[in-house]
Amino acid sequence: MATYNTSSDAANTMIRAFLTKVGENYLEHSFNTGSGKGKEIWTKIKRETFENKCAFCGESSENLTIEHLVMFNREQCGLHHPGNIVPCCKPCNKRQRHQDTKQYYDWMEQLETKCETIDEFKIRKKKILQHIKDKNYPNLNEDEVNALRAVAMSLYESTSSELEKSLNLFKDIDKTLVRRR
Ligand SMILES: [Zn+2]
Known about the structure:
mainly alpha, two-stranded antiparallel ribbon, 55% helix, binds zinc ion
């Protein structure tokens, strides 16, 4: 549990729920990586496709977590989908940002920073691209990604404003309660 829950936490959770729904819509089934079929798919990706190694640096680790290649946020709008998840170690999970634009690196730029040689980069990139293809990650065109981003942005803003509305609603109700005391 978070110890301090802000409006932006709630809005970001809403965005992830939305990107999960869109991913499941393409998949045509639910994709809960925490249990059942979804967990089986994730375990297979981690153990068989990536042999329990971080997809970025190649280190073997017992503590590999799910990384969304196209980030699972309102900026990149990556979907929660088998073709968009890879195992990742803790240090590689922290995506760098471009200094000038402050935008996050895409997964290929991130991969480049984690490889020591150009050959390593080529091999790992090929493996990831093959994984995306094998798992049929939807090939969204630029217009579709822009549409996703616009909807996500609107969801972000409406979630934040719903919280403000709830606060004001409570204040109004509380005023009448205090009057009656
Ligand atoms: Zn790593």
